[in-house]
Amino acid sequence: MNNKDVITEKQRKMARYAKAMGHPIRMYVLELLSKQSCCYSGDLTEELPIVKSTLSQHLKELKDAGLIQGEIEAPKIKYCIDKENWKEAQELFKEFFDI
Amino acid sequence: MNNKDVITEKQRKMARYAKAMGHPIRMYVLELLSKQSCCYSGDLTEELPIVKSTLSQHLKELKDAGLIQGEIEAPKIKYCIDKENWKEAQELFKEFFDI
DNA sequence: TTCGTAGTTCGTAAAACAACGAACATGCTT
DNA sequence: AAGCATGTTCGTTGTTTTACGAACTACGAA
What we know:
The structure is a homodimer of 99-residue chains.
Chain A: H1 9-20, H2 24-36, E1 39-40, H3 41-47, H4 52-64, E2 68-73, E3 76-81, H5 83-97
Helix pairs in contact in A: 2-4, 3-4
The structure holds a DNA duplex (30 and 30 nucleotides).
């Protein structure tokens, strides 16, 4: 109906991923996970200059964006990259930056 | 230098670029400019479902993030990719996604 | 000089984000 | 059952983002 809707689905998806990556703390977490397969929230709270509730919110955002996933490993939660979406993001950025 | 600051300069820079890319309108503009070298604000207002003042704000954000630059060509303003920073972003994302 | 075009800036309002501490939920271990 | 460890959720606060229309600025043309 709206012929002014020129924004593509790819652009929306990339914006969604990019937005999730738009905070230093979240970039830190993503880079860590992309390199070491998994980690626990507690590991991060020790290293990072934020309290656990704030970290929890950042992790939730990354999860909502689909970039990471959490697996219960009581009483902890193991976080890893969501490989499927990670790959999609990878492809999108690759195509976007023409690399 | 704060030695408790585990967040790297690269992570901060990427977060800054990612944040600027974190909106569909801005992704649209960036993709357009990455493909056609330049455009005018008026061209965009016609295509996009937002008013010119809103577009102006988005362009300002892209400019502040360093991803685009504007050149006065009275009475218009010609927008292009900021090639130097674009290249930096390219490298950062490339390294980050390991591509 | 006055008018029109092209954009930016200002003022405003609603929504989203970011951070914290307190309270809560969960599931081991005594 | 009671306590502990690990996180999440809630409530609050202040900031930032997104969007709009109105007002403004800059410049070229009539």
